[in-house]
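Progress narrative, Year 2. Work on Vacuolar protein sorting-associated protein 62 from Panicum miliaceum advanced from sequence curation to structure prediction during this period.
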Amino acid sequence: MRQRWGGCFSGGDVRVGGRPLEEPEPEVFSFAEPLPAWPPDCSRKGEGWLPLLIGGGILEGGGFARGRMCIGGGELELAAATSFQKICTLSSTRRGGGSSTTFYRPVGVPEGFSLLGHYCQPNCRPLHGHLLVARAGARLPGAPPQPPPLCAPRDYALVWEFRAGGVGSGSRVDAGSCYGLCDAYFWVPVPPEGYKALGCLVTMEPQKPPLNEVACVRADLTDECEPHGSLLHLQLARRPPPSSDSCAPAFAVWGVRPVHRGMWGKGVGAGTFCCAADGAAPREQGMACLSNVELDLSAMPTLEQAHAVIRHYGPTLFFHPKEVYLPSSVSWFFKNGAALYKRGGDGEGEEVDGEGSNLPGGGCNDGECWIDVPSGERGRAVCRGNIDSAELYAHVKPAMGGACTDVAMWVFCPFNGPARLKLGSISLPLGKTGRHVGDWEHFTLRVSNLTGELMGVYYSQHSGGHWMDASALEYTDGNRPVVYSSRNGHASYAYPGVYLQGSAALGIGIRNDAARSRLFVDSSAKYRIVAAEYLGEGAVAEPQWLQFMREWGPTVVYKSRKRMEWIVGRLPLRIRCRAENMLNKMPNELSREEGPTGPREKNNWEGDERW
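Result:
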């Protein structure tokens, strides 16, 4: 199945022989409107405040969107490079189409700052890079002596080289095919002992880059990293010896992300990339990410700034024109009849007030109680929701070691509608499958704490989801992205269309239809910040219903899997086996649907999104 990534599609690997056409350089992405003047930060001088140290001086407050942040007690000062100069482009091209990736060197780097690596991105979206650069800061008085936080590499190791003419020799040369109009040499820095490299470099000449081209970081200021997100995959033409059982090598380029992520994760992604021709992970190459060792969060927005971020970037959430099960506020849900039921009770639900103040809080989902709607027409009316009352519930939290702010925006729908199965050109309703009371869905904005720019949006889809870069989004009313909520299931998508939870290649799966309509919620205006733990206890008044860790609906048992097995058993033999394999991978919700839990019970409340 082809998957969308950052506005691009990445499919299978392609072997190419012959010179590819040079693609035009992507245009530079810019937001439709200038960024606002964020509210000033006047609240950082209390207990726990850490000033930002720059070149031996002190910049009062540190703070959100001021262009700098420090880690390691001020030892390392970070800035963001957002302007780039093209180095070269590599392509993997099918006849009549293909994909390509361009590699860049940052320009306009602030004086005294060092590169940590180069940047690259696929050419299927406008250029939008965010690469961290670093320089040594001033140590806190009384701190024990340490080697400098930055150091030049002692050498470079050649990962692979490409020749524009397809002529070369040696174990690290692809001599049978060309992938670009110029030579390209990929290097990984070899750090001194006690230091780590954070990214690779690309040159068009065979000479090694100057040692001062990039800096390595002292190991105690780094964290583990892992490759993620394929940026380029080239099946190399050089074949192994006839006696070898191995396949022809592939050259791959990936993004690099910290292993330790989430609200309290200290890993900081620098925006660099890693590459290998033998599948080697960046850790095997001695690479790492940065670490906000003391988790200094002085670059996070204040509460007033968080409100300004949501008002500026808050997406418009569109529901399908045929949507029956619309969102509502939690308060409306409770005031219109949703009640608390307890195991072993008399079957009569306990009324719940608008803030859920009488709901049990804390603990875990032990099955002792749950929420349900009344029976009859009153319950059916609650299930249809009330879009006029709907609001988004925002959880503001640190991401990427405090270098970014994530705003997870939760939407509540009183009811999740029935699923529909797509079999090629035929769509079949699955009866009651998918129907359940209470549906919590979300999308997440990620904003740079250095620049205040929106970096991307995470679109949550059932048990997974994916990030879309800000340059690949659809916008409405300035810098506010669009989110499409799928019919009945309320999964989030960046564009309208039909999305399958199953096999797109076979055209078999659960349908998710997304389209624009007059049914929408403007999250930049209709929202409520319900949690921002980094601001300290009491900074945000959390509603009691947020502490309810049990299920927001009763468990439902379905018979749809047996029906689907019956349908698949009558398909033509040529596709029956593949359809049976696909059915085995379908979610368990086809047989049984547990009542959904609330936002705080989800693993991405404190953890990172599933990407």
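Residues 1-21, 44-61, 167-171 have pLDDT under 50 and may be disordered. The radius of gyration is 26 Å.
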